[in-house]
Amino acid sequence: MPPGCCPVSAQEMGPPASKWHLAIRPQQWAYSKWWAPLILANLSCSSSDQVTVHFINRDGERLTATAKEGQSLLEVVINQNLAIDGFGACEGTLACSTCHLIFEKDAFQKLDAISDEELDMLDLAYGLTETSRLGCQVCIKKSMDGLTVRVPMDVSDMRRQLEVGKQSKQ
Question: Any keyword Zinc-finger (predicted)?
C-alpha cells in the first residue's frame, strides 16, 4: 500500500497471523493485537486518499487520472491506461527519458530533490526545460491533488531509432 494510506509497518503488525488468528473468538481476543492494525489500516483507505492528476498530451488533449499516494506518475499513466505514445519505455528503471514531463513552476518547486541519475537521463530528453522531471521519479503526494503536467512534443525513444535502422538494412 502507498505510504500515507496504510501507515502500519511490519514491526507494528508483529508476526504474521494465520487463519486461526483471524477468527473472532473471545478466547483468542489477545491475538487481536497482531491483526487488528491490518483491518484498521485497510478501513482507513478510501476514495479521499485519491489524488487527481491531469496530463496535457502532445496533441493538447487533457487526460485526467486518479492516483494513490506513493505511486509514481509513470505508474499512474500505466495503471490508468492513458494514451501517451511511447511513455515509460524502460518501465521505470531510470534507463531512458520517455516519461519526461514538464511541470508548472510552482508545482516543480514543491517536488522532492532530483537525483544525479535522473539528471543524467534528463540530459537525453528532447524539449528539456527548467521544470522537467521524469515521471518514474516523481511520487504522488496528497498535496499534488489537481496537479497538471505537460508531455513534451518530442520523445527520445531508442526503440524507434532501432526500428528505423533495421528497416534501412532490409
Answer: no
